[in-house]
Amino acid sequence: MDVAPPALSTVPPLDAVLAAAQVEFEEHPVTRMLVFLPDAIGTALCRDFQSELALVEMETQVRVELRSMVPAKTPVCFASMFTGALPDAHGIRRYERPVLVCDTLFDALARAGRRVAIVAVRESSMDTIFRNRDIDYYSEDDDSAVESRASGLIEQDRHDLVVAYQQAYDDCLHRTSHRSPEALAAFRRHLADFNSLAFMAGMFWGRHDHALLFAPDHGAHDDAAGRGTHGDNIPDDMEVTHFWGLRAESRLRRERLMQRLGESRLRSARLRAAGLMPAHPVRDRQLPGDRPMKILFLGDSLTEGTVGSGFIPFLDDFIPHHNHDYVNLGANGDTIGGLRRRAEALDQSVRGDAAFVWIGTNDVLMHPDWQDNAEQAEADYAALLAAVKPRVRRLWSVAPLIASQARAAEFKHALDRSAEMMRRVAEGAGATWVDLAPVFSEQPEHDYTIDGAHLGPDGARLVAGWLIGLIDNFACGGPA
Fold first, then answer.
1. CA distance 371 to 364
2. What is the pLDDT of residue 269?
């Protein structure tokens, strides 16, 4: 942000961050920054819950392994983080919360005319030890209010630096243990809130060179009684990982912004479908440029949804504001050849913005050797895509699916042969290939079907989460 460091700072810049910033920003200073401070999320927790951490990694490029202060207590750590000084220099050496009188990053920013907002849970360390500066303070009742306030400040775009501190994970671990269900739920909410604020920054700070920082203060462990704690000079308490996201305005003009936000929401929808990320009214709001679209779904009973659960009714559960028109052209029992004939007989008025062609499961079940039918199936599939392609701007070709892993193993040969053929034909026809099988194989112990083939509610919801990500990314102008 082109600001001199605080007077007491003795810490050199982080080489990995500087190198990435030189590539992303060249010689331009950052003009907006979000610093997200989740309490007590150590490296060990991030390592052991890597899949959940995707909510942070999808918005950042650089991760830096660091060590906390001794003792690993929140006011000690934050005082060092925002002064660049050791505890003996800034004066906070144990768990206490005096107002710092030494020079801090917030003083340096204020001297340079930068506008700073600290949003923190009321009476927390971040809410108290940096008082009496020429900056804006927002004391909130809980983490949810912190996220809401910080989101609003980003949208208003009046501050150069927004600092958001949350503490629910730390609160929970002290009441229970650092890996209790209650604590882990709070941990996941921190990740989701960072993701939401990062999304808001992309939306409303897109005309600025801006940076994101996910910066925990310390880690945690359980004491001999099984209660969560921290403050010891041990790896679980001392090791922390900070994540930096760097976004240059020159790469975030409108088209690029829509693409990045669409990609972000695609990943978010997939994580929500897997149960790793709740829906969120801020992140999921309508984007500039979003518009209702007409989407055609051509397929068999998996699309029609009259046997088991259909995925189409679940699409609006993920991003309900779009009001897309979903046209269900599925038919129970249909095959590649049958759908070809139906598609070729469609009235010319049946058109849309995009279409999914999801067919072939019945062919696989009827022809497990995929031999006698192979030539005709390929001819029918090519003709099917040729009949649908002129009716839409985007065409997705979806591989045959048997969601039950046990039953899929029985038909593996036909599934592999049919998918190989369909992918080749789809690429030749200018369609985008989609294979949902890996989504279901990630949890092989869970049967997402009612009978080995037709989807139950969980399976239909999982399919919807992936497909709405593709639709949303296409709506935002990104590659789907």
1. 11
2. 57
The burial of 394, by beta-carbon neighbours within 10 Å (0-12 exposed, 13-18 middle, 19 or more buried), is given as buried
Task: Please indicate, yes or no, whether residues 150 and 232 belong to a single structural domain of this protein.
Answer: yes
How does residue 471 score in pLDDT terms, banded at 50, 70 and 90?
A: confident
Q: Are 414 and 369 in contact (CB under 8 A)?
A: yes
Instruction: Report strand pairing: 32-38 vs 210-214.
Output: parallel
Q: Which residue has the tokens 């060590």?
A: 67
Task: Kindly give, in sequence order, each residue whose CB lies less than 8 Å from that of residue 56, ignoring residues fewer than 6 positions away.
Answer: 191, 194, 195, 214, 243
Q: What is the pLDDT of residues 401-428, one digit of tens each?
A: 999 988 999 999 999 999 999 999 999 9
143-180: buried (b, 16+ CB within 10 Å) or exposed (e) per residue? Answer: beebbbbbbebbeeeebbbbbbbbbbbbbbbbebbbbb
**Number of folded domains in the chain?**
2
Residues 108 and 173 in one domain: yes
Residue 153 lies in a domain: yes
278, pLDDT greater than 60:
no
> In the predicted model, what is the mean pLDDT of residues 374-391?
97
150 within a domain of the structure (yes/no): yes
Tell me which of 117-121, 234-238, 263-267, 464-468 is least confident. 263-267
Q: Give the H or E element holding residue 432.
A: strand 432-434
Contact 134, 6 (CB under 8 A): no
Residue with more model confidence, 465 or 280: 465
In the chain, pLDDT over 70 holds for what percent of residues?
A: 88
* CA nearest neighbour of 216 among 170, 152, 148: 170
Cα–Cα distance for residue pair 366/300, rounded to 1 Å: 14
Tokens at 392, concatenated: 């839409």
CATH number at residue 450: 3.40.50.1110
Task: Examine the domain organization and report whether 275 and 392 are in the same domain.
Answer: yes
Amino acid found at 12: P
Token pair for 385: 């895509």
Q: What is the per-residue pLDDT across 42-66, written as a single tens digit (0 to 9) for each?
A: 999 999 988 888 889 988 999 999 9
| Cα gap 441→404, rounded to integer Å | 9
pLDDT of residue 142: 95
Yes or no: say if 58 and 188 are a contact pair by the CB < 8 Å rule: no
- The DSSP result for 275-308, as a single string, is TSS---TTTTSPPTT----EEEEEESHHHH-SSS
